Every structure is written in structure tokens, then in C-alpha cells.
Amino acid sequence: MINKIKNRLREELEKSFKEKYNQEINIVVEEPKSSSLGDISIPVFSVVKVLRKGLDSVVEEVTTFIENTSVRSLFKEINRVGGFINITLDRIAFSKMVIEENVDVLSKKYSYGNNKTVVIDYSSPNIAKPFSVGHLRSTIIGHALGNILDKLGYKVVRINHLGDFGTQFGKIIYAYLNFGNKDLVDKNPIEELVKLYVEFHEMAKDKPEMEDKAREIFKELEQGNLEYKELWEHFREVSLAEYMKVYDMLKVQFDSYNGEAFYNDKMQAVVDELKSKNLLVKDEGAMIVDLGESMPPALIQKSDGSTLYITRDLAALFYRKNNYDFEEALYVVGNEQKLHFEQLKAVIRKMGYDYADSIHHINFGLVLQDGKKMSTRKGKIVKLEDVLREAIALSLDYINEKNPDLDNKEEIAEKIGVSAVIFNDLKNYRTNEIEFNLNDMVNFVGQTGPYLQYTSVRITSVLEENDFVYDKLDYNLYALDHSFELIKAIAQYEEILLKAKEEYSPSVIAKYLLGLASYFNSFYAKEKIVVEDDIERNTKLCLISIIRNILNEGMELLGMQVIKKM
Known about the structure:
Elements: H1 2-21, E1 40-43, H2 45-51, H3 55-67, E2 75-81, E3 84-89, H4 91-102, E4 117-121, H5 136-151, E5 155-159, H6 168-179, H7 182-187, H8 189-204, H9 209-222, H10 226-250, H11 267-276, E6 280-283, E7 286-289, E8 298-301, H12 309-324, E9 328-332, H13 338-350, E10 359-362, E11 367-369, E12 372-373, E13 376-377, E14 380-381, H14 384-402, H15 409-426, E15 434-435, H16 438-441, H17 449-464, H18 481-491, H19 493-502, H20 507-526, H21 534-558
Parallel strand pairs: 4-5, 4-9, 9-10, 11-15
Antiparallel strand pairs: 1-3, 2-3, 6-7, 7-8, 11-12, 13-14
Helix pairs in contact: 4-18, 6-8, 6-9, 9-10, 11-12, 14-15, 17-20, 17-21, 18-20, 19-20, 20-21
């Protein structure tokens, strides 16, 4: 909200100078280097340079313009310090505006997106393989971004582009038909299919002809072999059923599960279009698109006629554009795929489409444990479901120690444990690598998810025991330093949402929530909230209610669960 005031002030000052001098002058409106100087600062040196007038004259003129702006009523003092005009907000007027605009924050839907469509491609595990910790970041970053965009008024299409096609399925089908056990696969599908895949590769070392047979099976699968297609559909179905257990724990949902296989009959049209636009070049039997010296060529079709990831991604992109008419297309995929998406955008540009700049690779770093990539444990893949259940168990241990008589403690422990894993990831800027330590992330003290949940619970316990109304407030109380810190924090919320969208980073919200919780806990330590005076009590209850609402909504935007007791 302070940014809104600053922007309004800048716009009106620039308009005033334009009307008086018929010149475009860029006015800088910033925050002073020290809070003791005020809340807003305007350096006038750029105006002096353009108008070629004396500093004193320009300061006087800018001050006069400020006095006539629409936001003047929010200013208490306007002072000059050298070439800077410093403004101190009228805390009472500002607090009144902030409270009135944030009373109903939970039901407020911003209109920045104007219902424009954004498609988000995230999670996207490979079927017939476990849902590992490696899929955690894509899943929860994508989910949080979808929530943020929805809050800002965008229409969000959430896509789980499953890895459900490729030569590996020829190998799995071969293994299943030749040495698989249907009962074992039906009982524990993912684990048994992985075993069959590993066993195939072990046997193929001595029998390389198995590789040829697997390729033949996959080719027949592509061509519609009914037996192979039924097996593939079964493997896909049982895999998705296993993944849904994790998605249910994370409260993650999708609008589409169309994976690579869905675009199998749509890739030839891409190849044909590239040919018709004379973009395909033959290179050692393969077909490529030359992207110049700045990056390697895009390999569109192998010498045997098979297509690659970029061909499928082009087909998927065209399908999404035609069906959803997206404003933006986001791909939440790891840092290592940077070149792939640069090539994808480059090919789109060469094809003559104007939406290449609407495609964004939302990259992220690795999950580490003890400084090393967290991908295996004693030679086995670390399953995300196992990790989440371990976090839940740790949370339940804590509850049993601190509040053993708590009702529904197993349900609450699940909300705490899963939310702790989510927050530990999202509090870090997405491109950074993150350290994975369950004991640290389930801690109720420090920069953790449980700390935020506990802060919300603390406020809820006060509010449930005391009634209040929003229209009986003494705004003078909000002018006190520790109260005004909370007012300013509340005022930042809308700007934080916009910044999170601008940077495609949920960490912006996570860090803001930590700051908000810290401000509240400091306020709670200094102020007695439930006092005898009705107006004073009501004023304080109103303030902490808005804090609680923002904390709860912020956590929900990140994908965390809100609880009332813990």
C-alpha cells in the first residue's frame, strides 16, 4: 500500500511538471536510508538537471506540487534535507486506510490478471517409477504459483505432463510378459515395475537382442497394438493411483493429466509445419532446426524417424495455445533444463509465433542432504510419501510431548508435518539448492512452518474467547511504534503477492509471513490485548484478527494447512 501511495505521488508529480513545462521528467520516489528521516523520500537532482534551475527553487516547487496531490491527507510532515524531500506518513490516517482495505482480505480477489489464462506445467513424474523426493520441488512450487495467480485474478490451468511414453515402456512390457508376475505387480505395482525394469537391463547386458525386441514392442505400441496398449494403460492407471496418495497428502490437484502419450498423434503436424516453413535441416540423417551460433541446434527427429522431447513439447505448446489461449505458459522444471527451454522458445520464434516471450521456465535447484543430492538411500530411491510420513511422525512425537490430550492429534500432526516439508522448500528462493533436514523443518521455533502455524493458533485462541467488531476502533493506538510496525506489515501484503508473481517465487510470500509472525509475536510480548477498556480491547483484537487472516491465507497460498489448535 505504501508502494501505491509512492506510485500515485510519482504519477501526479510527473503530470504536474508535464503540464507546466511540457517536458517528461522522471520523478524518483523511494524510502529514506534511515527510518528516522520519514517514510517516503524524493530526491530532486534529476529535476534540477532537466529544468536547469537552482536546487532551492526546485525543492520549493516540488513541495508545492506535493501539497496539491490526492494523497496529501496521508502525510503528516514534509521536510527538506539537502536535495531530498522527506515525507512522514500520518500514522492515524494511514492506519485507517490499511484497516479498511484489509478487513475482508480472505474473500478479496484481485483483478490484476483480468481472468487471463496461465497454464502451469509442473510435477510430471514418470509412470512406472516411484514418486521421489526429486519431484517435490516442481510439485509444490507449481502448486503455490497456481494459488498465487488465482488470488491475483488469473484463470489458472494446472497441467501434470506425465512422463508416460518412450522406449522404456517397451522394456517394461517385454519384462512383464517374459518374466513378470501379475499378482505381484497388482499388489505393489510401482515397486514391481521398477524391479522388472532393472532386471531387464541386467539381463540385456548378456542378451543385447532384448533391446531390439523392446524397441519393436514400443514401435508396435505407438502403432496401436491392442495387447501392448492395454498393458501400458494398466501401468499408467496403477502408477497414477499411487501418485494420488502423495497428491492427496499435499492437497495438490490438476486440471489435466495429459502426458507425453497424449501428443503422440500430434507431433507429425509439428514436423510438417517445420518442413513447410523450410526450418528443418538434415544432419547425419537426423532433422534439426538451426538456431544459430548462440545455442546448439534443436534435434526434432532422429534418423530412424522417432521424435524427441522438444518435438513433444512443441506439440503440447500448440495444443495448449489452441485450447486455452494462454497469456503465459509456465514450466516448473529444474535448472538443468535451461537450454531445452531456450531452444523451445527459439524454435517458436523461428516458426513466426509472437508468444515466445510468454513462455517461462520456472527453474529450481536440487534437494540436498548433508550437502549431497538427495536421490538415493542405500541404493534405493527416496520416496516422497515415506518422507512425508516421517515428518508426520515427528510432529506427532512433539504433540505427545507438549500436548498429549489434544483432540484429533493424528490429523493435526499430518497438517503440521506435511506443511513443514512444504514451507522448508518454499522459504528458499527457488533457484537455490535446499538442505533437507526433517528435524529442523518440524521444529516449532525458528523460520519454520510450525512456527507460522503456532502463531496463527496463538491468535485464534485469543479471538475465540473475545468478541469484537470492526467499527469501534481507536486509530490513535495504531500510531504507537510497535502497533504501526504491524500496520505497515499488513499494508505490504498486496505488493508481496504481486512481487511473488513477478518473480515467480513463492519464497517472497514465505519470507513475508515469517516477518509478519515475528512482528506479531513482538507486539504480543509488549502489549496486553485483553484489557478492560472496550474500545482499546476491540482495537487490538481487530488488528490481530487481520494479522491472523493474512497469515492463514498466505499459508494456504503456499499449500500449507491451517490449524486452530496444536
